[in-house]
Amino acid sequence: MNSFIFSDDNKRYHTWNYYLRHQFNSKVYKVALNAGFTCPNRDGSKGIGGCTFCNDVGSGNFTQPSSMDLLHQYEQGKQVMEKKWPNSKTIPYFQSYTNTYGSLARIKECFQPFLELDEVVAIAIGTRADCLEQEKLDFLNECANKKEIWIEVGLQSRYDLTAKKINRGHNFDEFEDCIKRIKKTNCKVCVHIINGLPDETKEMMIETAKVCNDLNVDAVKIHMLHITKNTQLARSFEAFPFHVLTLDEYVDIVCEQLQVLNPSIIIQRLTGDAIKEELITPTWTLKKTIVLNEIDKKMAREHLTQGMNSSWKI
């Protein structure tokens, strides 16, 4: 029998689906959007080329072209999802690039129309820790009076040496300051971390997960490093190959990360998406159901639950 407190099925971790159903009493899905922003480590203000693993669409693999009006993008995405989940609620997800890297006026223009849509229960905004000035955070805090606001911030790794290798363009102190400022608002924060970054050990990946406890974040997305075509990482990998995690290694690391993460932290993702034709390695990530099933089986077999090795108390 599964006695995990934040589960009403066989899951032994705090799933995003569990949170959404209990929070909104409905099926809720995200609609990915491309607002046409860029990043400071792409446009030359902090660097060029972006993060080494990031592709030409700013990690928004399944978004529409940015030339398309945002509401039109949203309606097209919703039409596809409604075929599977009719009469559901939605979360517009500003996914591609850095969606607070622009003027306050432009940011308002992008986000405000979605605050008025009845089926929208929340808005998710992907950004960087060095691109969330206080005036923008204050605006998002105002938006949180109308809809739930999720600010998704890429950490990837807590280690500054790794950050330099992947051309992230900011250090851990900047990330920590950003999260602490978000936590003073009514917005919610989701942190992205990546397993399998070059030269990182299992222990380093687990320490990165522990940071999410220290900063009391609301949710985490755990990704496996994808090496995709036409990225700096792909070029580096071709010239200087490094070890890429196997499925078994990834499952083992994720299960240990879940054990140290406070059970109150929502797990929005345990594996990422890549376009099959663009993925160089690891190809096992294309079989998402198998990855998730292997995590579930290991946790059940070994009687593991999220937070069992954390200091969290009810």
Automatic annotation (TrEMBL):
<dbReference type="Pfam" id="PF16199">
    <property type="entry name" value="Radical_SAM_C"/>
</dbReference>
<dbReference type="InterPro" id="IPR032432">
    <property type="entry name" value="Radical_SAM_C"/>
</dbReference>
<dbReference type="InterPro" id="IPR005911">
    <property type="entry name" value="YhcC-like"/>
</dbReference>
<dbReference type="InterPro" id="IPR006638">
    <property type="entry name" value="Elp3/MiaA/NifB-like_rSAM"/>
</dbReference>
<keyword id="KW-0479">Metal-binding</keyword>
<dbReference type="InterPro" id="IPR007197">
    <property type="entry name" value="rSAM"/>
</dbReference>
<dbReference type="GO" id="GO:0046872">
    <property type="term" value="F:metal ion binding"/>
</dbReference>
<protein>
    <recommendedName>
        <fullName>Radical SAM core domain-containing protein</fullName>
    </recommendedName>
</protein>
<keyword id="KW-0411">Iron-sulfur</keyword>
<dbReference type="InterPro" id="IPR039661">
    <property type="entry name" value="ELP3"/>
</dbReference>
<keyword id="KW-0004">4Fe-4S</keyword>
<feature type="domain" description="Radical SAM core">
    <location>
        <begin position="23"/>
        <end position="264"/>
    </location>
</feature>
<dbReference type="InterPro" id="IPR023404">
    <property type="entry name" value="rSAM_horseshoe"/>
</dbReference>
<dbReference type="InterPro" id="IPR058240">
    <property type="entry name" value="rSAM_sf"/>
</dbReference>
<keyword id="KW-0408">Iron</keyword>
<dbReference type="Pfam" id="PF04055">
    <property type="entry name" value="Radical_SAM"/>
</dbReference>
<dbReference type="GO" id="GO:0051539">
    <property type="term" value="F:4 iron, 4 sulfur cluster binding"/>
</dbReference>
<dbReference type="GO" id="GO:0003824">
    <property type="term" value="F:catalytic activity"/>
</dbReference>
<keyword id="KW-0949">S-adenosyl-L-methionine</keyword>
